[in-house]
Amino acid sequence: MATAERQQREAVAELKKSTDSINELRLQNRRLAEDSAQTGNALRRTRQLYTQLTDSYDKLLKNSDRALANKADDYNKVARDLARREAELGELETTLNRSKADIDKLNADLKVREARLAELQQALADKDKAVNDLKAKVSNALLSFKASDLQVKMKDGKVYVSLSEQLLFKSGSTKVDPKGQEALKKLATVLQEQKDVNVVVEGHTDNVPILKGTAGMQDNWDLSVLRATEIARLLSTNGVAPERVTASGRAQYVPVSANDTPANKAMNRRTEIILTPKLDELFQILDSNSSAGNK
After folding, report:
1. Phi and psi (nearest 5°) for 173?
2. Which residues form a coiled coil (predicted)?
3. What does pLDDT average to over the chain?
4. What does the DSSP 8-state code read for residue 253?
5. Where do the domains of the chain lie?
6. What confidence tens digit (pLDDT) does each residue in 24-54 have?
């Protein structure tokens, strides 16, 4: 009984609740009906705005696509320029490294050449000193002879000992007089100590032909050669190694004066002993420099 009453009360309450809901819905429906015109107008306006917004969006999207395309083109151009710059930079770095390597090589070559130049300068200085020392020793050894008969001078890195015919020979003779032998002996003493000196004996005459029928001679060539050979023998006899001595005749073809006066002819009738220090070291340096320059 209690249960049935409770159920009835609940049903009544539910009915009332449903009635209230229906009434509320009806009220809302009336309100909706009243607002339908306004809502329709608002909806239409909203749709128009939506359409306008859609059109604007489409336009903006198109413009954005074009802008993006332009930006992409700009980016690609910048990227290409950057790649080109990087390539140019790489080439410049390669060229710079190559130039640095060339400079290093040139500096190394310059140092080698400077060292060779210093070596050559030292060799030339040593050679000049040797020639000066040789001239001084020869001059001191031959001080007792008159300047008109014997002269010692330097020329082209060599020492020239010029001996007059009057000191060495009688006219037309190839035999050295005693006074000439004395001079040659003193010269030989100096040359014995100067083992790195080569000796060239040159015979010279004036332009007067030799007498016809002179034994063993046809002309001044023969006379100059025979006199030079005789002096070379005397130097060798007095201790100068024969392999260091060369004898040659120049006849009348290398005069020191014109053959126009007796005094000038006497000057041309002479024997020149040319002393040349060996230049093996200097030649080696020159050959080394030449070989290096051809590389």
Report:
1. -90, 155
2. 82-137
3. 83
4. S
5. 142-280
6. 777 777 776 776 667 667 667 767 776 777 7
